[in-house]
Amino acid sequence: LAKKIREKFNRYLDVVNRNKQVVEASYTAHLTSPLTAIQDCCTIPPSMMEFDGNFNTNVSRTISCDRLSTTVNSRAFNPGRDLNSVLADNLKSNPGIKWQYFSSEEGIFTVFPAHKFRCKGSYEHRSRPIYVSTVRPQSKHIVVILDHGASVTDTQLQIAKDAARVILSAIDEHDKISVLTV
Description:
- By secondary structure, this protein is α+β, with helices and mostly antiparallel strands.
- It is built from four helices and seven strands, in the order H-E-E-E-H-E-E-H-E-H-E.
């Protein structure tokens, strides 16, 4: 049993290392010839996808797609197109793999296989727990203090509440949080 688990773990580690090598090579190429092509997850034509029971939705097993933060720079590194073939190979050779992701500090979120997202409003993957826990794996100790005194306008209070919601949406079960109102 231990041997089978080790073999499976090593297969998945090989997948991660292969992905890492492709991303690093793509980034080196990006420095001289920017890789910025986008395949928006919100605008994928239905004709490019078909239902896949492994994902329980319509997907394209040949391409990845992207969601961008509203603050992403037009020259931000996006390895998605370079990753398509290696991600497709990962899926073929390791059927246990499901969704594969690339997330960048610059605000690019790539998912393979491509599928259509529900695209209402902006998308900010950097505040999602999976991204936050990856870039900062240790638990966080957070104190949110909201001042709702007489000198605070309704607009200021709303901004404070919205900021608190963003913080709260990025926590996970390991974080310690306190909310105080004064």
